[in-house]
């Protein structure tokens, strides 16, 4: 719920110092989206710190876990910056009680102390100059490994793995093989290995991860990320010591691990395919039992005009008379030749019925008509008379630009991360298969080629030929018929290129064979004219030849969320979370 200016009720109360109303809103969990941001990337906690409401600041952080380290999109200011600029020493005191670091930097590399000095707030200056971080819980000897490289760090973390326990947050610190004066934080999250460079800032010997807070020692840096995720995928939890044991681990927990299990690494690099173990039995059901649970009577469907053509037949606009007499406008996907294509048609329905995400077109059910034809009844997604983002860009080029493409990229990545986690491979990700719900929301469609990943493997091997969209396909898909989340990542890069090229055909007039040779020779699509350099770097990472060198969708989504140029997508996701 937002007003015309884009503020939530919580933000309105914070801006106007409506303390009584603010406290009431906090009780309503549905309204209290603590870290929601406005159009400038400002949270309610930012506004509270601007206003000097120290009591509400305490409540937001202590009881509702509001993040004091989120940065404003335009300035990069954190809550400590806001308080220092306004001279609210009481807010700084609250932040220090909650162990919030004070050497945070904005986009101009200014700290809260810099702002306090600039504004002449003597009480703030005195407090910030004398502030000291909490004593770290571990010494460098608990986590530093000077002799490990990237590969051996992975193997070492594997050796620290306790039997039948999550290793989320386990970590070690090693020397950078590129620059031995710097360190690398290597950690485990979601059964993936992540690597973050720790930068040493000479001559003052401060340490940071990226543009994060500055710390006077590695011990203080590690201690901070054990309290705040602050840009990492999660909290650091347990260091892996030099003896190969976690400092909190009892040796008895490991005595049942046999030597054979040690030969197969439990973790994968964060740029490799992540198989969600909760979905390992994705294929262990019969699609007809799923279809029957979602059967829709033909008597409840009215067919309208043709609005497109799918892989198997025409797509009609229709009306579904749903429960309690509610009429819902839907898209009806039909099957031309039931005898020839029924199995493939039902396979697509099987995939779609398992999926429910705001960035994926929803399938409501399947109709078996009296004349023996099959129809999929799915969410109708159209905007200004067009369906796909490709059609919209080519017909309304003056109405879209870089900001729109950034938002669409993040939404598509969110939907693809969901597929990745569910163990599904799309196999046909392209701009023509991205539908427009409105200008601020796009959805992934056309699952005709999608498959669940086989049990025990990271890729699906196609067993049938047919026409394949080679221009969007990764080398291993073209050469060996292998499809994985990593090959979807390649297609995602091509889809981004289509956007920023305003719908141009990838590789121009090259033939399919010429495209294959072009890629095999190490060449890639050129940067589109309006495409920012950073986004083209994302595309290039998606087009790494080796699958293990490409980022996962989880990693891409993580990068998008941290990047200040990308818009907050949560309002779009929530506003489209229900289907009409």
List keywords for this structure.
alpha+beta, 4 domains, SHC Adaptor Protein, Serine Threonine Protein Phosphatase 5, Tetratricopeptide repeat, 7-stranded mixed β-sheet, 21 helices, 580 residues, Phosphorylase Kinase, domain 1, 5-stranded antiparallel β-sheet
Mean pLDDT: 77
Beta fraction = 15-25%
Architecture per CATH nomenclature, i.e. the level-2 architecture of the largest domain:
Orthogonal Bundle
Distance between the termini: 18 Å
- Domains (count): 4
The low-confidence parts are 247-266, 270-293, 449-466, 574-580
Query: Regarding CATH, which class of the largest domain?
Result: Mainly Alpha
Give me the number of helical elements: 21
Full CATH superfamily name of the largest domain: Transferase(Phosphotransferase) domain 1
Number of strands: 18
Radius of gyration: 26 Å
Share in helix? 25-40%
* Apparent shape: globular
Structure explained in plain terms:
- This protein has 580 residues and is of the alpha+beta class.
- It has four domains: 9-130, Alpha Horseshoe (Serine Threonine Protein Phosphatase 5, Tetratricopeptide repeat); 140-270, SH2 domain (SHC Adaptor Protein, 2-Layer Sandwich), CATH 3.30.505.10; 287-379, Phosphorylase Kinase, domain 1 (2-Layer Sandwich), CATH 3.30.200; 393-575, Transferase(Phosphotransferase) domain 1 (Transferase(Phosphotransferase), domain 1).
- Helices cover 34% and strands 15% of the residues.
- The protein contains 21 helices and 18 strands.
- The chain has helices at residues 9-16, 19-27, 44-51, 54-62, 79-86, 89-97, 112-119, 122-130, 150-159, 218-227, 259-262, 287-293, 338-353, 389-395, 402-422, 475-480, 485-500, 512-520, 533-542, 553-562, 570-575, and strands at residues 144-145, 170-175, 183-189, 192-201, 206-209, 238-239, 268-269, 301-309, 314-321, 327-334, 363-368, 374-379, 424-425, 434-438, 441-444, 451-452, 459-461, 482-484.
- The strands form five sheets. Strands 1, 2, 3, 4, 5, 6 and 7 form a seven-stranded mixed sheet that branches. A five-stranded antiparallel sheet has the order 8-9-10-12-11. Strands 13-16 form a two-stranded antiparallel sheet.
- A hairpin with a 4-residue loop joins strand 4 (192-201) and strand 5.
- Helix 5 (79-86) runs antiparallel to helix 6 (89-97).
- It is globular, with a radius of gyration of 26 Å.
- Residues 247-266, 270-293, 449-466 and 574-580 have low confidence and may be disordered.
